[in-house]
Design brief:
Strand order of the largest sheet: 14-15-17-18-19-20-21-22
Helix content: 40-55%
Mean pLDDT: 85
CATH topology of the largest domain: TIM Barrel
Number of helices: 21
Largest sheet: 8 strands, mixed, barrel
CATH architecture of the largest domain: Alpha-Beta Barrel
Structural class: alpha/beta
Radius of gyration: 39 Å
Shape: elongated
Low-confidence stretches: 1-7, 9-13
């Protein structure tokens, strides 16, 4: 029985209230009669559409005036859906923003519904549900922002910075004005990393970005180009304007310390810039030339500004570099990298002890380039590793074909740490047992002093094969004899600059004699380079020098001075020129 005074339960009182359900779901529903344009709403309309008068929601036309980004968005969606889906009952879903006024906050709406066709097959009545979807839209905006902006500084990331630069160059070309692209590089940021940690360096990067941003004009764009570099796109900017702007940026970075959690940090920055489209007609040109200018500024003095200018000599050298790169790679592929052999003789008996192998490159016209013409260019262009690989193959082939000879080869600084070179020598030593004992590997003294621990490991691995180690150009650097002993060096080759004048220079005589005496006490053999005359050779032999080489005993020749069994020449790996 029902309680006294209560009304009996009916089906009507048990049926859920649609408005309450919509309110609980944060939704509101509508019916839109397109013939009269009237919109009837149900649910918490005032809660969802705050600050929007009821008359702005009463008709489809009035409601459409609130929509952004396009006021015809809903109508277009309905018509397009009709064309695609056919007549009768057709579902649809659209998203848009609603704003009561231009100064009001945007609310993002997700609208789903169905429309019913009239006699002409076009939409006549729409029934739909709308809900506020600000949170999802905010997440989407955040994802878009992350795809466009650097997460540390909030500025444009590299991809969108380059896109902005390309657009600025195209715009400057179209309107016949000038834009400037700047690269701002924080000086010695690695020192901050080493001294305080990467988190402090990140604070410095973020602070510098904020300072630059504060000095930009409206319309200029800032982005993070790389770890310690920012790119600035300055529109409608002349070269004179660029100098003024650069000094403003440098001063704001230089004049104030950066507060960090580890204490204040003082940094400077250098800037390189290029004017576009005058000196850069594409984004790639602008980036390359701004980087050149930045490198020039840092080379001159950190904390300075450099504007890129055409340079006839630099451009000519680049054309030469491209040509020489192609020539070296082609020579490697066509087996035109060959060896010349310079005898190293016993200082007393003048009997040949071993031969130093020097690289030569035969050109297509028959001329031969010497090592001083090849090695510096190959090192500068990053090709020396390929040359050293080929020389190693040729030297090992000679040793294998002539079992009574000993050869030495020079390797460049980069090759000492080249894993591929190590793989190559290991495989060659295993393929030709006994060859290692007749191989001498020469490294320059400047390499030996750069990283003693690394070179010690290099020397140890070679000596484990059975090879010997020589220090070339000894005396030109600052290697101590203690380091020579720690490295396990077998031979020191005294720099020819000190040897060639020993017969005439008392200073050179004293220096060379001291080196020979100290090496002999450590049990290290000595070779005197660039021996020109008999008088010098006699002095060197009297001081206890073990070997001599130079004009007196014979210069390098491509003719082998020993009989050689016919073995196949090692194949040259085909390499591709990279520019």
């Amino acid at each position: 029985m029902p309680l006294a005074g209560s009304a009996p339960a009916t089906a009507a009182t048990q049926r859920p209230d649609p408005s309450a359900i919509l309110s609980r779901l944060g939704q509101t529903a509508f019916v839109w009669d397109l013939s009269s344009d009237a919109m009837d709403w149900a649910g918490p309309v005032t809660e969802l559409f705050q600050d929007i008068p009821a008359d702005r929601l009463a008709t489809g036309a009035a409601y459409s005036m609130l929509l952004e980004p396009s006021r015809s968005l809903r109508n277009d969606a309905l018509l397009n859906t009709a064309a695609a889906a056919g007549p009768n009952c057709v579902p649809y879903r659209i998203e848009y923003g609603v704003r009561a006024s231009t100064s009001a906050q945007m609310s993002w709406i997700e609208e789903t519904g169905i429309w019913f066709a009239g006699p002409d097959g076009r939409p006549a009545r729409v029934e739909g549900i709308v809900r506020i979807d600000n949170e999802r839209h905010a997440r989407d905006e955040q994802l878009v922002r992350l795809s466009r902006h650097d997460p540390l500084t909030g500025e444009l990331n590299r991809t969108h910075l380059i896109a902005a630069l390309a657009e600025a160059i195209e715009e400057a070309s179209r309107f016949r004005n000038s834009a400037v692209f700047m690269l701002v590089g924080i000086d010695h940021l690695s020192r901050v990393n080493d001294s305080f940690g990467f988190d402090v360096a990140d604070q410095v990067i973020s602070a510098i970005a904020s300072r630059i941003r504060m000095r930009l004009r409206g319309g200029d764009q800032l982005g993070r180009f790389s770890g310690n570099k920012f790119g600035l796109v300055l529109k409608n900017c002349t070269v004179e304007d660029a100098h003024v702007a650069a000094e403003r940026f440098l001063a704001t970075i230089r004049d104030e310390i950066v507060p960090t959690k580890s204490g204040p940090v003082s940094v400077t920055a250098s800037i390189g810039a290029v004017a576009a489209p005058r000196h850069a007609r594409s984004a790639d040109d602008a980036i390359n030339r701004a980087q050149e200018a930045l490198a020039s500024a840092k080379h001159r003095r950190c904390g300075t500004f450099s504007m890129w200018k055409p340079n006839v000599e630099r451009d000519a050298q680049r054309r030469v570099n491209i040509r020489v790169t192609d020539e070296i790679v082609t020579a490697l592929n066509e087996r035109r990298i060959v060896l010349a052999y310079e005898p190293v003789v016993d200082a007393q008996s003048r009997a040949t002890a071993f031969h130093e192998c020097l690289v030569r490159m035969r050109q297509e016209d028959g001329q031969v380039l010497l090592a001083p013409d090849i090695v510096p260019v190959a090192e500068r262009l990053g090709l020396i590793r390929l040359v050293d690989h080929r020389v190693l193959e040729l030297v090992v082939a000679e040793l294998a074909a002539a079992p009574d000879i000993t050869l030495s080869l020079n390797i460049s600084p980069d090759t000492t740490m080249d894993a591929d070179w190590w793989t190559g020598i290991e495989s060659l030593m295993l393929a030709h047992p006994g060859v290692a004992q007749r191989l001498i590997v020469e490294i320059t003294e400047t390499v030996a002093i750069q990283d003693i621990d690394e070179v010690r490991g290099f020397a140890t691995r070679l000596k484990n094969f059975g090879a010997r180690i020589a220090i070339d150009d000894f005396g030109a650097g600052y290697t101590s004899f203690r380091n020579l002993r720690n490295l396990g060096v077998d031979i020191v080759k005294i720099d020819g600059a000190f040897v060639q004048n020993v017969a005439r220079s008392a200073d050179d005589r004293a220096f060379v004699q001291t080196l020979i005496d100290l090496a002999r006490r450590l049990g290290i053999k000595t070779v005197a380079e660039w021996v020109q005359d008999e008088e010098s050779a006699t002095l060197l032999a009297g001081w206890g020098c073990d070997y001599i080489q130079g004009r007196l005993t014979g210069l390098a020749s491509q003719q082998r001075p020993w009989p050689r069994s016919e073995l196949a020449e090692p194949d040259a790996a085909v390499v591709q020129a990279g520019r």
